[in-house]
Design a protein that fits this description.
Layout (H helix, E strand, L loop, with lengths): L1 E4 L5 H12 L3 E6 L9 H4 L2 E5 L17 E4 L10 H16 L6 E7 L8 H13 L5 E7 L2 E2 L4 H12 L2 E3 L7 E2 L2 E2 H11 L8 E5 L5 E2 H11 L5 E3 L1
Parallel strand pairs: 1-2, 1-4, 2-3, 4-5, 5-6, 6-11, 7-10, 8-13
Antiparallel strand pairs: 9-12
Helix pairs in contact: 1-6, 3-4, 5-7
């Protein structure tokens, strides 16, 4: 299959790219600046690089022919006041560009949405999902909570706190439950979802086998690292 991979330079995109190439797919990597994209030498000859800024797409921009599916892994971590509109505009531009292609399936990695009152970032993720669902293709949304793996923003916060603070006095929300998932499992689910007709036009929460509070995750990390830590909420 020939697959469009957006977010190819991101934490998940870089790992998914390796898995897709290993599976024998043809991959077109979307990047904003080709000069800053440095894939492993071992796969550089197996991929195509497409330089494109989805926040400002030229009217005559076209995707390569023969694409079957696409991954939407673009997330703005901007702290600017208008980042929600920025994310929505990028999703809108992506959808419009795909109207000029034969892509049949898009897989979007989002965050778990299980509350009526969402944070600004999760609200933005939901708005992006709704925008992507308007496309002339099938959409599958995978919703993940905390992703565990070196380099994951959430995991690095956990590591930083536990490594530096032997005693923590924390807010009560640290007792909130979540279902973390390992980065390897995220990549496995993503790679097995593309062009799987049984998953078209649906959304799924993905998580590991353990349901833990944030406090429990901190203490579990401390146990594995053999660090004595006390947390008071």
């Amino acid at each position: 299959m020939k697959i469009l991979l957006t977010g190819a330079t991101g934490y998940i995109g870089k790992r998914l790219l390796l898995e897709l190439v290993r599976a024998g797919h043809e991959i077109v990597c979307c990047v904003r600046d080709a000069n800053r994209f440095n894939p492993p030498i071992s796969i550089a000859h197996k991929i195509e690089v497409l330089e494109i800024d989805f926040s400002n797409i030229p009217a005559d921009k076209k995707l390569p022919d023969g694409l079957d599916g696409a991954y939407y892994l673009m997330h703005s971590m901007s702290s600017s006041i208008d980042y929600e509109e920025l994310e929505l505009n990028i999703a809108r531009n992506f959808r419009h560009l795909l109207f000029r292609s034969d892509i049949k399936h898009v897989v979007y990695l989002s965050g778990i949405i299980n509350e009526n009152s969402l944070s600004k970032h999760l609200s933005s993720r939901k708005a992006v999902e709704e925008e992507l669902s308007k496309g002339a293709y099938h959409l599958t949304t995978l919703r993940a909570g905390i992703i565990i793996g070196s380099g994951s923003a959430s995991f690095e916060i956990i590591r930083d706190l536990v490594e530096k603070l032997p005693v923590m006095i924390t807010p009560k929300w640290l007792n909130t439950k979540c279902q973390p998932i390992a980065i390897k499992d995220v990549v496995d689910v993503l790679s097995s979802t593309i062009l799987n007709t049984e998953l078209y036009d649906q959304n799924f929460d993905i998580g590991g086998p353990d349901v833990l509070s944030y406090k429990q995750m901190l203490l579990e990390y401390a146990r594995i690292r053999k660090l004595k830590r006390s947390i008071y909420t």
